[in-house]
Automatic annotation (TrEMBL):
Keywords on record: Sigma factor, Transcription, Transcription regulation
Lineage: superkingdom: Bacteria
Name listed for the protein in its UniProt record: RNA polymerase sigma factor
Domain RNA polymerase sigma-70 region: start-end pairs: 8-73
Keyword Transcription regulation: yes
Family statement: Belongs to the sigma-70 factor family. ECF subfamily.
Sequence ranges assigned to domain DUF6596 in this UniProt record: 178-278
Native source organism of the sequence: Saccharothrix xinjiangensis
InterPro entries xref list: DUF6596 (IPR046531), RNA_pol_sigma70_r2 (IPR007627), RNA_pol_sigma70_r4_t2 (IPR013249), RNA_pol_sigma_r2 (IPR013325), RNA_pol_sigma_r3/r4-like (IPR013324), WH-like_DNA-bd_sf (IPR036388)
Amino acid sequence: MASVEAVFREERGRLLAALVRRFGDLDLAEEVTSEAIEAALARWPVDGVPPKPGAWLMTTARRRAVDRLRRDQAFAARLAVLQVEADRAGPVPAAEPGGDLPDERLQLFFTCAHPALAAEDRAALTLHCLAGLTTPEVARAFLVPPATMAKRITRAKKKIREARIPFRVPGADELPERLPGVLQVVYSVFTEGYAASSGPHLQRLDLAEEAIRLARILRRLLPDEREVAGLLGLVLLVHARRDARTGPGGEPVLLEEQDRGRWDRPMIEEGRDLATAALTGGPAGPYGVQAAIAALHDEADDLAATDWPQVVALYDVLMALAPSPVVALNRAVAVAMRDGPRAGLELLDGLAGEPLLRGHHPYPAARADLLRVLGRRTEAAAAYREALDLAGTEPERALLRRRLAAVERHDP
């Protein structure tokens, strides 16, 4: 049964994308994909997994779709209108050489991440359609009730239908504008898995691994796009530290305290190669630069051995490419490591008016750490309390409570 589930996991996104491309309707494609998988669950344990499982699923799903259209003339008429839009994207591709289905997941990526959709809906739809998560599973990923997530997904699909959002890969002239949105959706899924915004756990490893799987699919489908390599390299280099980031009770273990022997070295090597590819052959992009920063952290034997001047230089590049208060916060922390806590604190205090940082607990936490090192304990305690009020997960709050208590006891 495990092998059958693995097939479903790999084939579902390809099958769904091919059916949407053929019939022009995401709801119909989802329904017949589910029916085909249900049929396989009944047949394959008895008959065995067929030599070309994707082709078997496609044939079954296509027959179910045709039967549905024959029974529902109104539905068929609506699809005929939508098919006009799909036809503008060109003919349906033939199957890949030696493959079961044409791999049209890239088209589905761009549909799910279309800028006409609300930002919160893009990630939900991507996880639902391309990662194959059920509505309750996506709801758990975003820590909302299943009914709320069902409304989001329904709203997104309705928008795709009513706005006639085309199921296609943007042309070469559109790709530079549209690709960052797709990458941002995948990265936002990863960051929620790497550092959960709320809940009982610091990490959501299942969510982070789904994002990595989606990034790998993108890398296979767009092998020449250096920012895709940068994104995959970045998430691998960060995820390589996963086992060392929490203690036995789930408590956070900060970078300077992590057992680097527990870091995933093969994953680091792969991520470093991807970072190199992302920075080779043209101007650097934001994900390539972030991957290079992550590689410098992963290559160092300890925190003190990190090449902080190079980290700061890369943050300078990143600020020029994609300036944001969060990037400025991270740069200030790197400057503190290079030039001392006073220099870092001066930069952090200069960010005090940034609205985006007001609800971002790492900002007061970083200030508190530097204030503590400088011996300004009363101010440090106030900053720790501010961070404690903003922290979203219980492990983060527990860490901040310990640091606050240490400052109040005048521990070193």
